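Changelog note: in this version the structure field was regenerated for every chain. One regenerated record is shown below for reference.
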Amino acid sequence: MRRHPSGRYLAYNETDQTTESMSSLVIKDLHATVDGQEILRGLTLEVEKGKVHAIMGPNGSGKSTLSKVIGGHPDYTVTSGEVLLDGENILEMEPDERARKGIFLAFQYPMEIPGVSNANFIRAALQARLPEGEELEATEYYAHLYEKMDMLEMPRAFTARSVNEGFSGGEKKRNEILQMAMLEPKYAILDETDSGLDIDALRIVSAGVNSLRGKDLGILLITHYQRLLNYIQPDVVHVLVHGRIVRTGGPELALQLEEEGYDFIREEIEQNANAAALGAGAL
């Protein structure tokens, strides 16, 4: 049997129908609410495999809402739009099904799971992707796990510790990237991975993310600050304001935001709205 990048095994006579044109995470005109309040207001975005897209924006613009909607958080309601993973709409799927299809979400505030060791947690996640009756080979699993832990400068003792319990902020974020490295997703959404990290932890976590970059992985990097993008250089930068992407550019856009803030973006939005209103009035 051959293994599909999603983790599913293909029969010898089965072909992989995914084409290059479908190798992307496409968000189309997405509207979403939480507690009855609309947060995403027609967001459209495409993240190609092999690319790193960064999303920046002021507080309350919808950045974390976007990550939770993609991941399938039950508190967020999609009112219209699509999220297509390699051409397949995932919005009707449960979160675990989205994960098996190739979505990975690194949380801004990772949860603690007392009583479940890191090694068993990751092993269970990998086992869930295998066909019924197949088992992970323990020796190979631990060899691979230790290789990724070394990359992230994580001591072996972390394998026996409960998931995130008693971890520092930097340890929690490294643990998220370890899970990502082991699960090998198609698309990774990293929600403010730099939040709460000191310079040393930021360097280590960023090095881990950079080591995973490649043609088979698309990354959506959500951040407030340019400093993360000094370590993980994006291919594309988007600005999210009031639930919509209002500006897209290269890495230089993040530098401009660092220097000028979001005021120039807000002014452009206001000017465009005023021009549109005048145009409508003229009709």
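Spot check on this record: The chain has one domain: 2-282. The radius of gyration is 20 Å.
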